Amino acid sequence: MAGGLSVVANEDGQYNGKLTSFVILACMMAAMGGVIFGYDIGISGGVTSMEPFLKKFFHDVYTKMKEDKEVSNYCKFDSQLLTSFTSSLYVAGLFATFIASSVTRTFGRKASILLGGANFLAGAALGGAAFNIYMLIFGRVLLGVGVGFANQAVPLYLSEMAPSKYRGGINNSFQLSVGIGVLIANLINYGTEKVKGGWGWRVSLAMAAVPAFILTLGALFLPETPNSLIQRTNDREKVKRMLQRIRGTDDVQAELDDLIVASETSKTIKHPFKNILQRKYRPQLVMSVAIPFFQQVTGINVIAFYAPILFRTIGLGESAALLSAVVTGAVGIATTAMSMLIVDKVGRRGLLIFGGIQMFVTQMIVGGLMGAKLGDHGGVSKAWAFVILVLICIYVAGFGLSWGPLGWLIPSEIFPLEIRSAGQSITVAVNFLFTFLVGQTFLAMLCHFKYGIFFFFGGWVAIMTAFVYWFLPETKNLPIEKMDKVWREHWFWKKIVGENVELIIKEEAT
Fold first, then answer.
1. How far apart are CA 247 and CA 225, in angstroms?
2. Which Gene Ontology MF annotations are present (predicted)?
3. How many independent structural domains does the chain possess?
4. How far apart are CA 200 and CA 156, in angstroms?
């Protein structure tokens, strides 16, 4: 058996097993979907600040930036067509994730990851070869379909493959991969901006094909999760052998028994999207909407999509703005890696609350500084630009430590098997819906709200931090198939789901 870190059975219901090298390699390959997602996020913000790209596809924006001296600093990039390029990916992902739910449930997590990789490949090729706005946006749509499939399946895959003791750290590798993808995109944009002839943006868009190829090829060799196997087949011996292989021990009977029970319950559910509306699943339904919504209204996409544009707004040059985006991307990766190391020790709630306070404070200060130092024309001094960059890095650090990785981890671990694919689809759909809305409206909001945009998002951060404090129970180290325990013991949710099974039996009878 593959070696690894031991996971000892205990009174909290932990299963026997190890964090095997087999699981680590499989999860590293699956997390490549996060690299592509991050690359697509980062690349759009960079190319939309490149003058040759704007001149070719968004000439009105290019004219305002270069020639119109009357336009406010906050309004130079305000273009619905420009934001459509960025946000079209998320509209496509929104619809694709519901198709992906059926694929994930019927054919397995591996099938959805493979389809996601294939669409990524097609979208990257079309974007790199685009000669008009229609090809450009259609390429983004194909990338969005890939994101819809990958983001639906990869977090589930990671949570189901991981031993419960290490589930938080392993699942957080998805957000770490997203951060790595953003950083790679920012580095490539910084290099391609210097290409003579103005075609560097084509390299930036086409390079998404590299991680897409790795994901597509690697998906062919990925093992299916035991949870998916038991859901789709009655071959319990096959599931047991897979459990023994990934846990590194022959003693997997306790986990297998729980999987069999979860599978039998799952097979009685014919319409998971209808069943998730039942009262017994109310906490999971609320979290599947609230957590991705809050993750998007942190304002992180202000940085992820438009960091170079934001830095150009405060007066930095094209190259300096792209380099600043590289710095913020590196900070995000470092703090997400830290989150991976401590999330299963500190817990989910503590990180979310601490990160929320950190983001709120820095957003208030950045908004105040931009209001005091940046007018409608001109820029800020280099010293103040540096201060703003440092504050934004502290804000990104707060997100990387908390809402970035945990926004994907928590929804992927709270759903029982019978509604897991439907719940994850709702999570991804809500995430994409509000990613689209924020992405599509941000440049207009920046133009109208000006520095007040940071106060707007800061207010949401305060609300979501309070929500976590009052309504989100701690889920660390609890086996994924025993997660219903946290809702029955929570001060608020136990009033809805009940402290005993009578309510569940009555509801199922009706």
1. 12
2. monosaccharide transmembrane transporter activity; symporter activity
3. 2
4. 36
